[in-house]
Amino acid sequence: MQLYATTLNKLPPGITCVDVPSKGGIKLRAAYAVPRNPKGTVFIFNGRGDYIERYFETMNDLMKRGFAVATFDWRGQGGSQRLLADPLRGFVKSFEDYDADIDAFYARVAVAHCPKPFYGLAHSTGGHMMLRALRGRKWLEKAVITAPLMGFHFGNWPKWLVHVLVFATKYMGLSWTYLPGFSKLPAKRENFSGNVLTSDRTRWDRDMTTLEQHPQLGLGGPTFAWLGAALKSFNDLFHWPKGTGPSCPTLIVLAGQDRVVNNADTADFLKQAPGFSVITLADSQHEILHEKTSIREKFFAAFEAFLSG
Prior knowledge:
Number of strands: 8
Strand order of the largest sheet: 1-2-4-3-5-6-7-8
Order of helices and strands: EEEHEHEHEHHHEHEH
Shape: globular
CATH architecture: 3-Layer(aba) Sandwich
Distance between the termini: 38 Å
Helix content: 25-40%
CATH topology: Rossmann fold
CATH class: Alpha Beta
Largest sheet: 8 strands, mixed
Strand content: 5-15%
Number of domains: 1
Radius of gyration: 18 Å
Low-confidence stretches: none
């Protein structure tokens, strides 16, 4: 396994790529970089369909601020081992498998190579997984989560019908099939218009250049299996230990223009689980860290204030 730079997307200085064995013998691709005299390490948990290269810019930004950085690709995506014969299908049996990926990353990369204190920066599905990891497990000093996945926009589909379809496909052995309405192929350069991820054309083109040159990093739409695993995990997190907050101070940063995750579901979750700090970047689409520079500057101002405060 290796990392892939382009002329538009430079490697963070001193970054090292390593293989990490996880549950079931699955090999994960992980990476870390440690500057001189670091003031701690920020662990980056990326979203569904992401890959390490998309976070080079953010890693560089954090290193300029004096942090070491470490990250990995979840099983089934990016440069980690795929789980089906068709590598483009977004598939996982259970989010507990992602829990195991976090444990493997922590043991093989964080403990072995990263200076303390440890901080978390997670996005979307990665944010959901970081929330799972903050239920009583004291391992981070502070965490920042952007646009956490706590619910979907189902459009005209009633939730009960979604649950029925998930159950039916599993019963019929068809949980590997794509969800209707999602592309079977990764995003392309020409898909920028009308996309629900970012309003920044330059960063979109940068990421599309990476996929054009290294298509093996791409992922298509989610399957019914992935959706079923997500729905079960939503239910798990909504049964957060009553009256307790996260195991470390945690800031949730919502994207005001989010059309991927449902901010109303996140608000409902926060009523069940007290102790989180929350801000909203009103002009941001889902991928805050891949948005326009003005939006990213607002994010990093909040990030630095939260970590230093």
